[in-house]
UniProtKB/TrEMBL annotation:
Residues 1-29, 115-135 are annotated as: Disordered. The keyword Coiled coil applies. Keywords: Coiled coil. InterPro entries: UbiK. Residues 79-109 form a coiled coil. This is Accessory factor UbiK family protein. Pfam families: BMFP.
Amino acid sequence: MQDGGQGSSGPGGSGSGFGGGFGGGGLGGGPGGRGKFFDDLAGMAGGAFSVLSGLRAEIESAVQAQVEALTARLNLVKREELDAALEVARRAREQAEELAVRVAALEARMNTAPADATPFETGAGTDPTEAGGGI
């Protein structure tokens, strides 16, 4: 009887070698015993991983809720709101600069106008109640 050098003293495989009480066959006590042990170990590790992943998600949501509550309590703004306000301020600054250029151009035109020109010239016949003009 060949046992691959692991030893076997009977149907349970609990002789010399890795035989023993690990779920029937132990580590190599029978065909597929080592595979079953590692399959069980992998299953337990996978289960623990899924539990930890769920726990991580719960912790993240709890921390997020606390941060949002603290933000509201301290009257802080969210990044999106700050970005929107900065964009409005940038546009207002651009418009103010454009208007300043237009005002400067209008002031320059006023300063170069002839001094003897008046905004409204009165001439003959403009007022119908005056003598010499009109009806």
